Amino acid sequence: MKTSDFYYDLPQELIAQTPIEPRDHSRMMILHKDSEVIEHGHFYDLIDRLNEGDCLIVNDSRVIPARIYGYKEDTGAKIEFLLLRQLDGCRWETLVKPGRKAKVGARFIFGDGILEATVEEITDDGNRIVDLKSEEIIYATLDKIGQMPLPPYITEKLTDQERYQTVYSHELGSAAAPTAGLHFTTDLMDRIRAKGVNIGYVTLHVGLGTFRPVKVDDVTKHKMHSEHYEIPPETAELINKTKAAGKRVIAVGTTSCRTLESVAAERGRIEACDGFTDIFIYPGFEFKVLDGLITNFHLPESTLIMLVSAFYGYKKTMKAYEIAVKEKYRFFSFGDCMLII
């Protein structure tokens, strides 16, 4: 397949700039895998689409305020860092703007000196490996001086940082939110559990590689960036029990999906484990775990719309997006969502 096969025309005004309040009042398109039926509702209707014994798998990764602004120590030139992932100790892989000022050995100051950074190396794709020195734990420092790394298509200022976090976020480490989970409220989750639907947690720290444009014509030539994941024992047990009972495993978001299918592809089943995945899911992929998927509406020609097409079917997916545009759904991170079951 060609990357251009996944293009669709999206009016600028349909790109959501601010989140809906309350969270669960976003619109939801309901798609049925085994038919052409498309329904329209709201996220709070999700509970009516779930059955006792089903399980939802959510990504509990928490976004760090990873965008920081500072200056070069020797010249005072302004600089912007976006921390992508922690490698070990004080070493981070970082996107730097403007990159020409960040040569190996360059030193930068942030937050009136409470954070310093030294460039150690430049990666093949132009990112910087930097050594960060903070007066306290790095995450506490970032809470003081960092900003949420909102995608570039969101131009409105975020007044409440927590609106770019899921209500169940726990494990610090993502450079972007697992946005399908932004629609949940704690009340809705409580009511889902009360219905006998189980909720399991995985962690996949979202890097920007998931969102990088596909620059090759042949989809199969694209290489995904590696991201760290973890499946705890209780989640692995829950998934295996759910499948054995003939009930559905529904992933909340493409990150949860990629975590589960990566482990199943590598190990043949779901087991408690952690590691790194660069799995790329596109049409032709054989799903081993998923019975359902909750996901937002994604950018044209992105790896995310390719994943949805693999699960729901290419032609049906592109038709659904055509309908979403016609019905004026809100798109991308703060937008509406679809439930595929």
Task: Give the low-confidence spans.
Answer: none
Order of helices and strands: EEHEEEEEEEEHEHEEHEHEEHHE
Oligomer: single chain
Distance between the termini: 25 Å
CATH architecture of the largest domain: 3-Layer(aba) Sandwich
What share of the residues does DSSP label as strand, in percent? 25-35%
Mean pLDDT: 95
Tally of helical runs: 7
Strand order of the largest sheet: 2-1-17-16-14-3-12-13-15
Number of strands: 17
| Integer count of domains | 2
CATH topology of the largest domain: QueA-like
Classify the helix fraction into a percent range. Answer: 10-25%
* Backbone CA Rg: 20 Å
Largest sheet, described in full?
9 strands, mixed
Name of the CATH superfamily of the largest domain: QueA-like
Net shape: globular
| SS class | alpha/beta
CATH class division of the largest domain:
Alpha Beta
Task: Tell me what the structure shows.
- Helix 6 (303-312) crosses helix 7.
- This protein has 341 residues and is an alpha/beta fold.
- It has helices spanning 46-49, 138-145, 186-194, 233-244, 254-267, 303-312, 314-326; strands spanning 27-31, 38-42, 55-59, 61-63, 67-72, 78-88, 91-97, 107-110, 115-122, 128-134, 171-174, 198-204, 227-231, 249-252, 273-277, 292-296, 337-340.
- It has two domains: 3-63 and 160-340, QueA-like; 67-145, Thrombin, subunit H, CATH 2.40.10.240.
- The strands form three sheets. The chain has a nine-stranded mixed beta sheet.
- The two termini are 25 Å apart.
- The chain is built from seven helices and 17 strands.
